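Can anyone check this?
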Amino acid sequence: MKKNQQVEEGCPDVSTRESPRRREVLELLRTAPAPLGVAEAAERMGLHPNSVRFHLDALVADGLVERRAEASSGPGRPRAVYTPRPGMDRGGLRDYRLLARMLLSRWAAADPAEARAEAMETGRAWGRFLVDPLPPDEPPTVERSMTALLALLDDLGFAPRPEGGGGSGGPPERIRLRHCPFLELAEERSGVVCPLHLGLMQGALARLDAPLTATALEPFAEPDSCVAHLTGSSAR
């Protein structure tokens, strides 16, 4: 057995998508007219039964294949046979970026002002949904609100860093976003994606009942970052 084959077949965390051999086993079961046992599958693939059994057990663990006992045609205990679970193959490729581009193109085709307004409102709704509100017994101070907002932005992949202000208990003047989790889409459709990000921050701060809000977002303010501007707000 080749070294790379040993690594693949001896590593229990190799997924179906990452294992060509495992995909072959799954495809064999899908095209077989009846459930197959280990020996039958191994014979058809020209592999050792232990190798096939390993992949079959992994497919069962992944929920892609069912194992059941089938009565033997002769004396002896029932044999185990395998059949694919019904449903679409979840080991195939995904292209969510294409889906996002398709959806964004609908906004981009609209009036720019209308598209921006809709993107911001969508962002606000998601900001309110994604952030956890502060406990009722904790007043929404600038510090607590900023901690919650920065945690949300960090979880989403923005690599945020507050800057300026904050020395006398006031809010920071801005948040530098050093990474964009939607960079390619933002480069193509900054007029929609960036207002979405601004609305996200506004919605989160509103949900936190924070004494500050995000007023503007400068896309690519510097080569390595975007900048969100903050201001204190008396609207609570």
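Reply from J.R.: I decoded it. Strands lie at 36-37, 65-70, 79-84, 160-165, 172-177, 212-222, 225-232.
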